[in-house]
Amino acid sequence: MEVDREDGRTQNQLRPLACSRNVLHRAHGSASWYQGDTKVLAAVYGPKAGARKNENPEKACIEVIWKPKTGQTGKLEKEYEMILKRTLQSICILTVNPNTTTSIIIQVVNDDGALLPCAINAACVALVDAGIPMKHLAVAICCCVAKSGYVILDPTKLEEQKMKSFAYLVFPNSVHSVLPEGSVQGEPMEHGIVTSVTHGIMSVDDYFYCLERGRAASAKLSDFLRRSLQQHPTDSSKAG
Amino acid sequence: MEGRLANAWRLTANDKSFIRTALLSEIRIDGRKPYEYRKIVVKFGREDGSSEVQLGQTRVMGIVTAQLVQPYRDRPKEGILSIFTEVSPMADPSFEPGHPGELAVELGRIIDRGLRYFCYLLKDLIEAEVCQLYSSNPLSFLFPRMYRAYSVESKAVDTESLCVLAGKFVWAIRIDLHILDNGGNLVDAANIAALAALLTFRRPECSLGGEDGQEVIVHPPEIREPLPLIVHHLPIAITFGFFSNDSILVIDPTHNEEAVMGGRMTTTVNANGDICAIQKAGGEGVPQRVIMQCLQLATAKAAGITKQIKEALYDILWYHLLRETTLETGELKCTTQKEL
């Protein structure tokens, strides 16, 4: 089904992506991720000594601070912080540095739709830049379901508001396995889902269709992520 | 407690003595001369009223938004200008989230006081009225058809202000400054970011309507062009650092120098040579002649920085102009700024 999107994209086309690493000088790791007009800046400090209150001191603790573009931090920002924290907790190796805190600070530079996926992507690149040990990376994508049933990827803010429902999906990125082909049993890891947040009503079939489309797009995102991370050689180390 | 001490960034004793010794021979650790400013880069976002300033390694983002609100009950005819300075933990490992330290609070207050005192009266294009500016009086940003003078000492506020409907609707201008990277001298960078954002900000046009003329209709930007602000002079904050040996003076200290210096002073001047404010909060005592020297230096630097801001602004306004020209099928619908 041909769908007319305002900026001329097809259903499954993502907006132009841009990613840079090491953009800040004081932060241990930093990254900026641009998806079309949605721009997010992420900074990582850590690991710092001491776990936060009520956190398990036998594991590394992750703290997320979300700074909106304008206005006070409210419930929406707290929700984003919680989702981001749980997502990153599942991809970082928490047993390596027990009783430490890694802080991730997200600053929204511009919001034009798909803000949370953009932030998750930026946070992953910033964690890589800081050298925090992780099991694998994550790529996030937003899928919208319209009233007539078609699914579009990576909506702009206007599209998000017009759609019946949308889902933020986070997949593990595809790995280039060092093991020979065929030795991995069961389903490959990138078919798993790390995080899924839905807004609005969608049928079960719609949801599974979103997952399929999202997974296909996440392969492209993984490639882009790998290419951009491999390009920049790390700068000299920063102490403080 | 231990954790927090362990996480605090400290400069080693060797680094400190190295900085001091180098300054005796007028050498700074980043290769600058004592009275040299770092490179300033002013960038603008796609929307009106968003700017990003890089002063060497220091990075600050400024966002301006406007809202129609009810005025304060004791000031029914005045608009509201508020400045929020977010010292984000992104900028410095010692900034704790939710618990602003001394530095963060002071920074917020200096910038707030500086901007509030340095807003200018803006000229109304259509009415072509020029307001007298007194260098010691705090001034306010002017919106076309609305302007206000703001003087904190005398509390003399011009009643023709951001007021749309007295007692019911006024414009509340909110400036958010996000400190992204602390490379030293946050006040200057934040000041430039706030000025740049205010200069590119355009507020929607509104008119009174409805049955009894009590309703305010805000015209969306697609229907009527939003109104830009016109500024006549810019107050620039220049920060000096004092070092105890032989009263050495440096301009625009980096965060390493800030950890070593004995005192600091921020002067806010404009390119015309008017002194808008001086802030020296504690620190070591400095002889009078040094203060005079600082003021002279500041005026010279302010001229250079004002020129840089105007050049960056000129580029972005040309871009906006071209964008609006093509949108309106070749006809120029927006009003241009006569003087930049």
UniProtKB/TrEMBL annotation, chain A:
Keywords, sorted A to Z: Exonuclease, Exosome, Hydrolase, Nuclease, Nucleus, RNA-binding, rRNA processing
Example of a GO biological process term: rRNA processing
Localization, UniProt: Nucleus, Nucleolus
Domain (Exoribonuclease phosphorolytic): residue spans on this chain: 13-133
Alphabetized SUPFAM superfamilies for the sequence: Ribonuclease PH domain 2-like (SSF55666), Ribosomal protein S5 domain 2-like (SSF54211)
InterPro entries for the chain: ExoRNase_PH_dom1 (IPR001247), ExoRNase_PH_dom2_sf (IPR036345), PNPase/RNase_PH_dom_sf (IPR027408), Ribosomal_Su5_D2-typ_SF (IPR020568), RNase_PH (IPR050080)
One GO CC term on file: nucleolus
Bilayer-spanning residue ranges: none
Gene Ontology MF terms in the entry: exonuclease activity; RNA binding
Pfam families: RNase_PH (PF01138)
Annotated family: Belongs to the RNase PH family.
PANTHER family: EXOSOME COMPLEX COMPONENT (PTHR11953), EXOSOME COMPLEX COMPONENT RRP46 (PTHR11953:SF1)
UniProt name for this protein: Exosome complex exonuclease RRP46 homolog
Automatic annotation (TrEMBL), chain B:
Cross-referenced InterPro entries: ExoRNase_PH_dom1, ExoRNase_PH_dom2, ExoRNase_PH_dom2_sf, Exosome_comp_Rrp42_subfam, PNPase/RNase_PH_dom_sf, Ribosomal_Su5_D2-typ_SF, Rrp45
Protein name stated in the entry: 3'-5'-exoribonuclease family protein, putative isoform 2
Domain Exoribonuclease phosphorolytic positions: 36-204, 233-300
Taxonomic lineage from the root: Eukaryota, Viridiplantae, Streptophyta, Embryophyta, Tracheophyta
Gene Ontology CC: one annotated term: cytoplasm
PANTHER family, A to Z: EXOSOME COMPLEX COMPONENT RRP45, EXOSOME COMPLEX EXONUCLEASE RIBOSOMAL RNA PROCESSING PROTEIN
Biological process, per Gene Ontology: RNA processing
Record keywords, A-Z: Cytoplasm, Nucleus, RNA-binding
Major location (coarse): cytoplasm
Pfam families xrefs: RNase_PH, RNase_PH_C
Top-level taxon of the source organism: Eukaryota
Family, as annotated: Belongs to the RNase PH family.
Cell location: Cytoplasm; Nucleus
GO molecular function terms listed in the Swiss-Prot or TrEMBL record: RNA binding
Species assigned in the record: Theobroma cacao (Cacao)
